[in-house]
């Protein structure tokens, strides 16, 4: 069956080709009723616009670039779902690239996206991205850029993320309320803005209870060359249990650190929460069926993706242009499950 054209839609609805084209582009020249008729007919009959022809005629690619650290975790996948839904509805394709937490790779991704002619870029910066000179240079070419998830005060732009400080403070307070006192933290490095805020929230919750902390309880988990993240998590947890006073609870600052810590603790034979409580950032839908069910700080990943995409499309269309950039901060939710309930230490006499 030949692909439906604008002319076919125009003939079927008794409209001009120009009117149909403008209706599908949401032109202000076309009435709401006509737009709805055209869109409904196009959707029912599976009309697909000729992207290449549109690009050549309008000088636009109809695509948006998305750079993430990795797509192999549920949190990033949900953000991408949110981005894709908004972009598809607005008529944009998305081109997804992974930095693999490397600044060099991130710069390469951006160059490739620019070469492809994307109309805007959504980026969640890599763990190695401390400076933002490369993004500033790209924006100076006229490229709209929106940061999402890993937001930073070091780069002025429209951004969408969560209240990292409060989320970490809340999680640590929960552990303290359950009478845990030696609370360790696994983080990915304090140079990263969101990680620094999560560390600050953790430390301030301890200070509120007048608890001193030893730096040995905070472990940066960034793999060395030839080492996997799980290797680093395993080494960090092992060293924590080798302390003269091991921790009685563990707070993990990212989705991957949370699930890897649960796995490593099981492999090492530690009972949760009897030997050590566990809580962390995670968006896994399996949290309820893990052993034990995992207490988590749940981030509204889908909404982060949606809002970031909406902001970028607004910038591309000119609707979001203003003298000041806006940072949208969404609340995270604390989901309490068995992994952080008050543990009962088994006393062994002999």
TrEMBL record:
| Domain HTH lacI-type, residue spans | 4-58
SUPFAM superfamilies linked to this entry: lambda repressor-like DNA-binding domains (SSF47413), Periplasmic binding protein-like I (SSF53822)
Q: Which UniProt keywords apply?
A: DNA-binding, Transcription, Transcription regulation
Q: Where are the transmembrane segments?
A: none
What high-level taxonomic lineage is stated for the organism?
A: Bacteria, Pseudomonadati, Bacteroidota, Sphingobacteriia, Sphingobacteriales
Recorded source organism is Parapedobacter defluvii
Protein name, UniProt field: LacI family transcriptional regulator
């Amino acid at each position: 069956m030949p692909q439906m054209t604008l002319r076919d839609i125009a003939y079927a609805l008794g409209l001009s080709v120009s009117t149909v084209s403008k209706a599908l582009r949401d032109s202000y020249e076309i009435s709401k009723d006509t737009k709805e008729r055209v869109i409904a007919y196009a959707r029912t009959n599976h009309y697909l616009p000729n992207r290449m022809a549109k690009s050549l005629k309008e000088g636009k690619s109809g695509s948006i670039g998305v750079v993430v650290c990795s797509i192999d975790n549920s949190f990033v996948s949900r953000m991408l779902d949110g981005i894709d839904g908004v972009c598809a509805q607005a008529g944009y394709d998305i081109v997804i690239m992974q930095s693999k937490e490397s600044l060099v790779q991130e710069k390469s991704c951006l160059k490739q996206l620019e070469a492809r002619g994307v109309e805007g870029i959504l980026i969640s910066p890599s763990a190695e991205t401390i400076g933002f000179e490369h993004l500033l240079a790209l924006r100076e070419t006229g490229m709209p850029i929106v940061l999402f998830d890993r937001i930073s005060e070091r780069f002025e732009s429209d951004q969408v993320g969560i209240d990292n400080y409060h989320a970490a403070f809340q999680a640590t307070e929960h552990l303290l309320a359950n009478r845990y006192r030696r609370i360790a933290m696994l983080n990915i490095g304090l140079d990263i803005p969101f990680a620094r805020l999560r560390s600050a929230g953790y430390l301030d919750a301890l200070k509120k209870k007048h608890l001193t902390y030893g730096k040995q309880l905070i472990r940066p988990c960034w793999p060395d060359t030839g080492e996997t993240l799980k290797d680093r998590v395993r080494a960090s947890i092992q060293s924590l249990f080798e302390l003269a006073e091991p921790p009685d609870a563990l707070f993990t600052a990212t989705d991957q650190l949370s699930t890897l810590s649960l796995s490593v603790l099981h492999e090492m034979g530690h009972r949760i929460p009897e030997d050590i409580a566990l809580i962390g950032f995670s968006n896994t839908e399996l949290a309820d069926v893990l052993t034990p069910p995992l207490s988590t700080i749940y981030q509204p990943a889908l909404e982060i993706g949606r809002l970031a995409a909406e902001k970028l499309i607004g910038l591309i269309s000119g609707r979001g242009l203003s003298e000041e950039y806006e940072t949208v901060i969404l609340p995270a939710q604390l989901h309490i499950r068995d992994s952080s309930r008050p543990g009962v230490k088994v006393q062994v006499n002999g």
